[in-house]
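Appendix B, record 7
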Amino acid sequence: MNAEEILKLHVAKSITIPGEQFSYFFSHFEQLTFKKGQAIISDGDKVEHEYFVLDGCLKSFYLNDEVRMFILQFAMPGWWASDYNALYNGGRATINVDCVTNAEVLRLSSTDREKLCKEIHEIEYFFRWRTNKGYAAAQKKMLSFMNNDARSRYEELMQQYPALYNLVPKHLIAAYLGVSRETLSRLYHT
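Structure tokens (predicted):
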């Protein structure tokens, strides 16, 4: 399946858009290839794009003053990633995005997204739908961290995204769950 077909299937989950309009929408994306470990957004960057994952896996993360990594999201095929605070508010990145694996993405500028939303009502609905789903997922993760112990968070993650365990290095899964690598190892082996 090519990039346009993958994006079309993703968009079709929430809206119906005629072929000609979809082709116009797709023409605003740039297809890019990144290598494993390559940075897409780094702390301090000006953020002007968001990224739709076609293949591979990205991670969005924050490094605190002690250089401890906190992973906010793993973005697998069909997911979007960026530093949304910087993207929407015009600030500098505080969230890093890089590649867990080699990755193929579609990049869309904030300017083009806004233009498309003004021109095509269905596209505006799509982005609102997507943002709402992302907000709900972030809220769910936050509540899980407030209410569940490490084992429950681990089991929930593996139930929702079983492919992650074989795709993502264990120290990154530990950083996502907010536990040490040793704690993750105990959770996995008991």
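Remarks on this record: The chain has a mean pLDDT of 91. The first helix runs from residue 3 to 11.
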